[in-house]
Design brief:
The structure is a homodimer of 93-residue chains. Chain A is of the alpha+beta class and 93 residues long. Helices cover 20% and strands 27% of the residues of chain A. The longest helix of chain A is centred in the middle third of the chain and has 11 residues, at 31-41. The relative contact order of chain A is 0.23.
């Protein structure tokens, strides 16, 4: 039925919470789908935003989401939470 | 219909505000298109200029814009705002 209905392909992503204490692997076919699954698996209830963990870029559109590679690490933030740089930021080799 | 109309290709970019407190992923097919979308997504109303975040280069022509790679990080400035160097500037290896 996957083939018959040609459903969008699920891709693997990784999502952490605001302080990077929890990180989970999540399959998703799009931004809204990932947001739904993240709220469930990271136990986030309020409105959630998804950012690139590496530089805090907020992802708001499906079009941009489709350009990020498999296994991209996102950070999921609830209202009031802020992105902070990774600890080794600025020391990339 | 994408093919029939051969619409210009949208590319991914990242745009931050003057103090780098907000950064968003934006798809755009050109400089003017990116400016339009940035005003919406960063809630900028007045006249906007786009600079390369890394060194403050002002981008004013579509021709130059077409030469920057996907996912280039821009800074969007309103009238009166100034570019400042990134904090970890000088520590890149």
């Amino acid at each position: 039925s996957q083939l018959l209905h040609s459903s969008p392909q699920q891709r693997p992503f990784r999502v952490c919470n605001w302080d990077r204490s929890l990180k989970k692997g999540v399959m998703a076919e799009g931004l809204q789908n990932l947001l739904d699954k993240v709220q469930e698996s990271l136990h986030i209830t309020s409105s959630t935003s998804l950012l690139l963990e590496e530089d805090g870029t907020v992802i708001e559109t499906e079009e941009f989401f489709q350009t990020v590679p498999d296994n991209t690490l996102f950070m999921a933030l609830e209202k009031g939470q802020k992105w902070t740089p990774p600890e080794n930021s600025g020391f990339h080799l």
